Amino acid sequence: MFLFPQKALVRGVSLQIEPQKDKISIPMISIHLLSDFEILSDFLQRIFLLGWTKKSQFEEIWMSLFGVLCSTPIGNELQGEDVQQIVDQLSASTLAVEALTGMLTMSLLYPTPGDTVNSRFMIKTRQTRDSYLFLNSLNGRKAAISRTQVENSFNPAQIFSANLEKLAADGQKYALGQTSVFYLWSITGELEPTNKKPSGMPKSVSDYLIQASTDLDTVSSLKSLFENFFHWFENGYKTLPLPLLAASIKSIAILSDMFDDIQLYVRVYGYLKEVFVSFHLQNHPAQGLLNYCLLKFAAIVDLERLDSDPNEARKIVDSMIADAQEEEDTFVLDCTLHGLLYLLQSVIVDEFQQQLKGVGEKVLGKLEKIHSNYDLIHEDELETMEHHKLLWTLIFRVFEQFGRGDSEFDQRFLKLTKTVLMDPRVPTWQKNIVSNGIQGLVCHSASFTEAFRDCAVELFDTYQLRPNHLSMALSVYFTCVYRSIQDNRRFSQQEMDQFRQEFQKILNLFSYYTLKSEIQRFLPPIAEFFLIFFTRNELFDTIFALISMDEKSETIGDYDRCLYHLLHYALQRSAKEKPKETLDFVRFFLLEKVQNVKSRRISRHLKALIMVSVAFSKEARLL
C-alpha cells in the first residue's frame, strides 16, 4: 500500500484492495500509469525509501518498471507525429533505467537484501599485498588494536584497510568505486586456474549475501536489462536521446560490479568504445561515467582480451589519463579519477606509469593550492569535501605505487602531508583522511616511518590548539613505531634515548585532560608501548617519580589519576605475559618502594592498586 504513488490517487485512480483469507492484497500499479513521469517519480522515491521485503514483491516491481522500458521509442519510432508523447515516454524510460538500476543494487544490501532501513551496502577495500603482510604479523595486529583503542573504533580487522574516499560512508548509498579490482577478479573467476568454459551469467553475484534469507536470483533481471541496452546500442546509440544514453551508461557503471563473467565486460566494452571514439558525449557530464567504465574494464580484463586491437585500447586509456590532467568539469574529473583508482590496482599499471605520475603532479598542485588558501578554520561544503577526499585518495595511491622518496614530486608530497597533519587550521575530516593515508603508507612500506613519527611527536606539543586531533597523532605514532619494530632491526642507544624523550611528552598529555573518559582509551596502548621499550624498573621508577606524594592533599588530582591508571594497565599487561617475573618484581621492588612513601593515604592507594592489578595472575597466590 505504501508503494502506491500518491500522485496516482490525486488524479483519481482508485486503490483496489482485495481481502483474502490470510492477508489483504493490493495489486501493483499498472504499467500504463507508470508511463506518466510524475507518477513514476513518486513510485521511484517510495521504492528507494521503503525497499522491498520478499522475492514476489521484487518481481512485481521489476516487471512493472521493465514494462515502461519496453515501451521506449527508438530508431524510426522517434520520428512519430506526436512529439509530446515521445518526449514523455523517453522521460519515463530514463527514469525507469534509474529505478531498475536501484532495484538491482538493493539486492546487494547486507544482511537483508531490499531492506533499506536495517541493511547497508558493503565496501570492498583496495588493500595491497605489502600492507597485508604487515597487518597479519604480530606487530601489525598490535598496531591495529592500539589504533582501535585510541580512535574508539570497533573493528580492528578493517581499521587500516578502509578506502580514504569512503571513510565517512554510512553504507546507505551505492556509488562509484564501491568494489576493488581484486574483488571483481574473484567473482569473475579470474583468480581460479580452471579450464571451465564460461557459462554466461550462471547465477546472481549477490547469492553469497542472500542465500540465508531469500531465494532471490538477480541474474535474469540483470541479463534482461543489459539485453535491452544492447538492443538500443545495436539500433544506433546516436539516435538515443542524450538523457537516456547517459542513464544507460550510469547504469552500466554501477551494475558492472555485478558481472560474474569476464566476457560480459568485453561485450559491453565494445559498445562503449564506439561511443568514446565518436566523441558523442564530449562536453556532456556522462563523458565522466564513460571514462570510468572504460578505465575500470581495462583494469579488470587483460587488454589483449578486452580489445581485438590492444594498441588501440592502450591509446584510449592513455587519452583518458591525459584528459584527466586538463579536465575542468568536477563531475567528469571525479568519475575519471575513480576509474584511475581501478587502473592503479591493475596489472597494467606500470605501462602507464609516466602518465599516472603526470596526473599525480596535477592533483598534488591542486592540493597545495587548496591548503595555501586555509587562512581561517573552516569546514567545506559537502560537494567540495567529496572532491577533496577523492583527490587525496588518488595522490596517496599514486605515491604508494610509484613513490620512492627521492624525486621532487615525492618530497613535495611528503612535505604537504606533514604540513596538513600539523596545521591546526585544517578541518577534522581532511586531517582524518591524511592521517589514514599516512598510516596506509606506513603499513605498505617502512621507508617513511621515521619522518611521519617525528611529525606525530611534534603534534604532542601543539595538541591544545585542536584537542580532537590528538587521537590522530597517537594513531600515526603507534603505527610508525610498530612498523619499525616489524623491520627487525635493533634500536641504537641514541634511538632509545629519543624514545624516552617521547615517553615524557606522552605523559605530559595527561595534564591537559580533566575527564577520565577522554583519556581512558589512550592508556592501554600507551602502557603496551612503554613495556616494549623500557624495563619494568625504568617504567615504574618514572611513574613513581611523577606521582604527587603531598601528604596534605585530600584528593587525587586528575594527572595522578591518569598515572595510577597507567600503572594499573602496565602491571596488568606485564602479569599476563610474564606472571612469575612480574610477581617477583612486585614483591621485591615495587612494594618495598611503596613502603618508603611518607604519605600513608597515598601508600594505601598504591598498595591496593598494585594488588588489584596482579590479582588475576596465576602466580598471585605467591603474594
From TrEMBL:
InterPro entries: Htt_C-HEAT_rpt, Huntingtin_fam
Tree of life domain: Eukaryota
GO cellular component assignments: cytoplasm
The name this protein goes by in its record: DOCKER domain-containing protein
Organism name: Bursaphelenchus xylophilus (Pinewood nematode worm)
